[in-house]
Amino acid sequence: MQTTKAETNGSESCLKEQSCLPLGGQSVWASLPPMSNASAEHQKPIIMVVASQDSASFFRDRSLGADSPISGLIALLTAVDALSHLHDLGKLKKQLVFAAFDGEAWGYLGSRKFLQELDEGDDSVNGINSSMIEQVLEIGSVGKGISQGDTLFYAHASRNSSISKKILDGLQSGSDSLGSDNVKVKPAASSNPGVPPSSLMSFMRKNTSTSGVVLEDFDSQFSNRFYHSHLDSPGKLTVHRCAHLSHQR
Length: 249
Description:
alpha/beta; Aminopeptidase; two-stranded antiparallel sheet; 10 strands
């Protein structure tokens, strides 16, 4: 996004002069309960809950991304905070791993790098075995999920598997438990060609058998008119929808 030479005024000249500064950033992951460096034989299947933490816009320093993707990141962090206060998480049959990826607005750099480091056994992902990743739940744009007075979200499944159905059933069970909040989760239309653009696609490219769900505030038609622009600001976000969603985790 930047060059070290003033005379390079475009991508072509920047690459030719080898003066382009690379895109960079820091992705973050954590687990509940904390993971040990146990052998694969003693590890539990992993459920990954992920969100993006960066955006883009024509005006680079005004990439606010309030709805896409920060609303999903808020929901993820709130869910992590709520779960961290529970006892006996070690008795769960699955291992929970949460990740916030940077660089997703630029070819899903964060999630691709995460999977690359898993393959290479990098210290930054020590404790995670990629072969144990069973499910991926991605929280996308969830700041505008309103339909006829209800808070409505759509679950886009990567494949019609029993695991994807379990994720959807869990989300629907969580929405029912909220009672008066009128939060609903519905499966996305079967006529959709697949999951929307998301970090989940990086996992699917790595392993085609990966089951996952992307939770969004739209079904067949993308609803954020200000996606990747400086107009995707907090003033256009329905903040309490993010809080409702996090309660379902």
